[in-house]
């Protein structure tokens, strides 16, 4: 039996975001925080001392059912040691707030509803990983070339990719616009301190976000 590496382009499902791994200084503290915050099913954690200063260029966004649920997630994050970057408040689009976890990851919790229609829950409707990029159109084309399928696109402002069954949806946003929305300066240096996993081969995108191989790209042939 001869094992041969495949050279075919990855399919959309292979290339789609399958996992999100956060690099953290204190693994046990991070595990406890994400468990209490209620998002431990959506991220993986690993210990790392990679240097990082300022904005890391991404955020993880939770979409929930109503304002009371937003408040509940923000309160749980703060109780676990998170810092509030933007207090939960009404906006043109709904209601939401922004917190920064003890490990430095920024989380946005929001709802399109401006009023509650039921009691607060701990349910999450959707989790989106927003990458802040310099050129949305160019990075979108890069990912399309890698096999990802576009679900939504708004010119050079925003792109959302189709999921391949993973727990987190991937989207692109202008870096400076994302930083402004989160209430932080756009400048940052060093590691993004995040790794994206898929069934395709490992690579790094134009903005320095690293993707890891989730499965070896080999097939067995007789």
TrEMBL record:
Protein name: Glyoxalase
Domain of life the protein comes from: Bacteria
InterPro entries linked to this entry: Glyas_Bleomycin-R_OHBP_Dase
Natural source organism: Kitasatospora terrestris
């Amino acid at each position: 039996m001869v094992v041969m590496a495949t050279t075919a382009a990855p399919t959309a499902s292979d290339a789609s975001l399958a996992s999100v791994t956060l690099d953290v200084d204190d693994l046990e503290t991070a595990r406890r925080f994400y468990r209490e915050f209620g998002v431990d099913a959506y991220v993986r954690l690993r210990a790392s001392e990679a240097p990082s200063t300022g904005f890391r260029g991404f955020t993880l966004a939770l979409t929930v059912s109503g304002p009371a649920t937003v408040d509940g997630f923000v309160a749980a994050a703060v109780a676990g040691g998170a810092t509030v970057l933007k207090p939960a408040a009404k906006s043109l689009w709904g209601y939401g707030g922004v917190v920064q976890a003890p490990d430095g990851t920024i989380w946005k919790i929001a709802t399109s509803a401006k009023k509650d229609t039921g009691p607060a829950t701990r349910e999450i409707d959707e989790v989106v990983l927003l990458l802040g990029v310099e050129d949305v159109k160019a990075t979108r084309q890069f990912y399309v070339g890698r096999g990802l399928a576009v679900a939504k696109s708004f010119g050079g402002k925003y792109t959302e990719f189709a999921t391949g069954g993973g727990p987190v949806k991937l989207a692109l946003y202008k870096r400076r616009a994302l930083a402004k929305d989160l209430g932080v300066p756009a400048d940052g240096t060093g590691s993004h301190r995040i790794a994206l996993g898929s069934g395709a081969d490992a690579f790094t995108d134009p903005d320095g976000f690293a993707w890891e191989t989730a499965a070896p790209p080999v097939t067995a042939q007789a």
